[in-house]
Give the backbone structure.
Amino acid sequence: MAYVRNAWYVAAWNCDLEVCKPLALCILGESLVIYRTPSGKLVALEDRCVHRFAPLSLGRCEGERLRCMYHGMLYDPDGRVVEIPGENRIPARARVRSYPIVERHDWIWVWMGDAVRADASSIPPAVGLSDPDWVLGHGQMDYAAEARLICDNLCDFSHLSYVHAQSFGASETWAKSRPHVTALDRGVRFERWIVGEPRMRARGEGTADVWSAYEFWIPGILLMSSAAYPPGTAAACQQQAPPATLAGEGMTFTSQAVTPLTDQTARYFFSWGPRRGHGDEALRDVLMEIANRAFTEDRIMIEAQQRVINNTAPRKVLPTSADMGVTLYNRLVESLAAGERAGPDERAATAEVPA
C-alpha cells in the first residue's frame, strides 16, 4: 500500500536527541540523519554524503554544521556543502536533501513530501509528556511488519476482546458492539460507550460505563481520551458523548504514532497516563506496565499476520462491519497518495469532479 508523503511523521522523542549527537533513522525507506545544534535548531538531512556515499550520521557536529567523517565535507543545515578539504571550488550540485523538521508535543516530526507544502499547523494535536495537565509515561517498539497493518489494528478495536483479554481485561463487548465512526478531512473519529465494563486492576473493583473517543490522523497518529462513569451513565446520555460538565473518573489520554521505516518494518511510539487529579506517577507506572504488555501482544499478532501474508498467495480480506473505520482510513490514504502521484493537470481535473 502507498503512504502519504505530504505529512508529518514522528521521527523520535525529543528527549532522545542530544545536542550535537547525530541520529540515524529511516522513514518510508529513506535514510535520514537528524541533529540538534548548540542553538537548539533541529536539522534533518539525507544520510548520504555526496562524495562517496558515507553516512552523515557518523559525522561530527561543528556548530550548526555537520562534517562527514570519511573525507571531511562540511554541510550547512540546508544540505549544501560549504567546505571540501583541499578544494577551492565547490560544485553547485554538492548538496543533499534537507527535510522540514519540527519539535512539538515532545515528539520530533519530519515532513517527507514536498517541502514547499510543509505546514506545521497541520501537525495532529497530540498531548506531550511535558503537558502539565497530564501525568504521562512513554515508550516505543519496532515491528517486523508493514505499518499499514498496525494502522488497521488501531482503526478496529474489536480485537481488544481477544488480543488484550489479559492485559487490558477487555470484555467481549468490544468485539460485539460498534463505535460511531466519522470521516474527517485527514483522519477518522471513533466514539463509543462500553457498558458494564470490568474496571482495570489499576482502577479498582466492580464495573463502569466507559466512554472512549479517539481520532486517527494521517499519517498514523492516534489521539485517545477515555474515562469511567457509574453504571447507567451511558443510558442516561442516550449513548451520546457525556457532557463536559459530567465528571468521570480515571480519565486518561494516550498519544500514539506509527512510522513506516521500510516496506515491512515500522516504529510505534506511545504515551499513556492519567489526567492530573485523576491519578499520579504511581498510577502512570501501572498503566505503562499494562500498555507495554498490551502493545507487545499486538506486535506478536501483527508480525505473525505479516508472515502469513508473505508466505501465501495474495488474497482479498473478508471485511466485517467492524472494518468501517479501517476502510475509511485506507481510502483516505489511497486518495491522498494518488493525488501526490498525479501531475498538476490530473490533480486539477480531479478537483473539478463533483463529489
Summary: The first helix runs from residue 147 to 154. Residues 137-330 form a domain with the Naphthalene 1,2-dioxygenase Alpha Subunit; Chain A, domain 1 fold (CATH 3.90.380.10). The CA atoms of residues 109 and 275 lie 25 Å apart.
